[in-house]
User: Fold this.
Amino acid sequence: MMANDWESKYFYVGDFYEGLARVNVGGEDVKIGEDEDLGCDLYDLEGGQWGFVDESGKEVVPLMYDWVDDFSEGLAVVKLDCNYGFVDKTGKEIIPLMYDGVSSFSEGLASVRVGGKMGFVDQQGKVVIPLMYDWVDHFSEGLAGVRLIADGQWGFVDKNGKVVIPLMYDEVRNFSEGLAEVKLDGKRGFIDKKGNEYWDMTKDQAREQMKNR
Assistant:
């Protein structure tokens, strides 16, 4: 048998991440719209069962899920009957399928959602940041953006759940090289991890000012 002949038995084979690729059997491409700029139809893969194979084509996570995401930091998101959880590379369910929504792990933590509220769990499934926010972003450089609808504003928490940047911004982006882009009252600028603000300048200019503080 030639290498990768095993791929033909699947409807979809994804790229390999951390040594495993997600695969689907029984699915179908369903038209979801049109791209007027490119002049072509848009399709999405729906239905079937999902699992994972290794680079030899061996199924290491059974094809039993309604959807799966790629592996990240040793765990993968899986969905079954509208519930989400995580499996390891042997197929063991490390974090039970008990959440309405989850994200992939980033810096050791993953966001989880129940009943419209979001927080974070660690890789053992322990809730380390309570499910109290209306929206959260993933961790980057030790901080994650969080939002409360009541205030309509964004801020940042650390991995212990401590609010280190007050929820006062209209928009925020993830930290990169010590700075995060923010928007407040129509103005865009940057903040550092101490909450210092840098307005009306490029990121390079903000970085230089940050170094001189």
Residues 1-98 form one domain.
